[in-house]
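Example (one chain per record):
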Amino acid sequence: MFEEIYITKAKVILLNPARIGKLAKYIVDRIEKDTENFFKFKAMVVAVNRLGCVRYKKALDKYLVERFGEEAKNWVEIVMTYNYKEDEKEILEYMEELRRRRGNKDYNEINKEIQDEFKEKDNPKILIVTDMLLTGFDAPQLKVMYLDKPLYEHRLLQAIARVNRPYKDKEFGLIVDSVGLMDHLTKTMAIYNLLADEHADIRRDLELNLMRSIEQKFSEFKIKFEQLKNELRSLKVGDEDVGIDLDAVKEMLKTGTGKEDILARIKILAMLHTESVSISARVIKLVNEMGTILKLYKALGAYPEKIVYVDDIQVLAYLYYRLKAIIQGKTAKLGKEFWNELLPYIHNRTIVEEFKEIGTVKIEPERIEKLISELAVSEEELRKRIVNELADYFFFIRSFVRERMHDPVYRQISERVEKLRIKWVTRVINTKVFLAKLRAIEDGIKDYEKKIAGKPFSDRLIETISYYVKQKAGKEVDFKDARDYLNTLASKKSKILPQQEKELRTKILMDLFRAGVEKDAVKLAGELVDYIKEEFDRSWRESK
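Predicted structure:
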């Protein structure tokens, strides 16, 4: 009775279209990360009632399409009951639209069809519900629930259990609570132990899915952590010791002792982290295992025994995020965002000393060259002595390039950068050659940036494809026909239509043939048209 009264009073707020719109946008903004790698897993939204379901669908459809394009209009479905006599206008309108879309089938049949599709097909990726499917629904790929409805006691536990079904690579389920129910969870857990025999089905559901094996998870965490710690300590590449002792890192974070050596080892691991080199397979596995163990720790929730590992998790999270930051080129500073990412892994009732930044990095290739000229040492010694500066410079260039991968010129440069790294890691080239080639790549980037800087939209596109063809085919191409046609298209300020795409491809081919580019010309023209289309789409979206 209490729950029904509360919902009646609360629904005035929970059904506010403006509020639902803001929450829907919030969900869309975070859903890529929540579902891991763009819907590796699926999601559920729990609305306060059936009208809320309809309003959520409208809002989610709107923001998903805005963010991901027209394909997103098939990502969301509702599963709920329907009643022609009692339903309000918004629900009735949705019912008519649903039957048109689903071939005038019976609503029970439609609900069953949607559930099967959710479990067996790519779409829908998000289910909206209010009462149906909160108990007994078994969809293991469901990972995240956006909870916007007051639920209490066993209904709350059973709803949460929906996201905790075992599934490949799913470490834990995620609940995003917008109505403040998590404070009730601890109190509700006690009810679990008081459930009578007549509630055996509820008890079994909770046992298998919510309360299942927290001790097993903790045991798994301990085993994995100790294995990782030992493997990290003993890591070697050939005869070179590149291992990292987590206890030494812990001491370094407290006192600063051994900072230079540990930072150098971290950067060596970052340089070795490439799928293209067989000797790096173990490094990649270790870095992935770090992420897995941090997820396991997070999945333990408020389990009291996890507090024993607080210091170890601080160290592991520092190492993992420092590695990720270097690999992604964020070497200049580990600021608030870094530490905010790390802190959730620490038990929220544990008092932990403030973290401190270890230092900042200044990218100076000239300084590296000076060091190389001054150090009259062997190649092996040189690699060890300047790995900090060299790694910072490499990842700075790679990060700059990767942020611009929509541009074919930068995609081409990215390939060159990775090949260069592989040659250095495998000793095909020495450190002096590695640095010289990095400098040449940086000079090429500066030259290209100057060419496109300040150019009008269509002129910039022509400059890019000209530069790309020069690098790839070794030919100067005027692109006169393509330039004139692009100017016409740009004046319309819209996307490129299929007929326009065909015409553009023809003009680019004519320009290529005229310049003597014949080998793989059709394939090359296709690459250029794809890039130009993407840029027109990007420009159109930004103008909205």
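Caption: The two ends are 48 Å apart (CA to CA).
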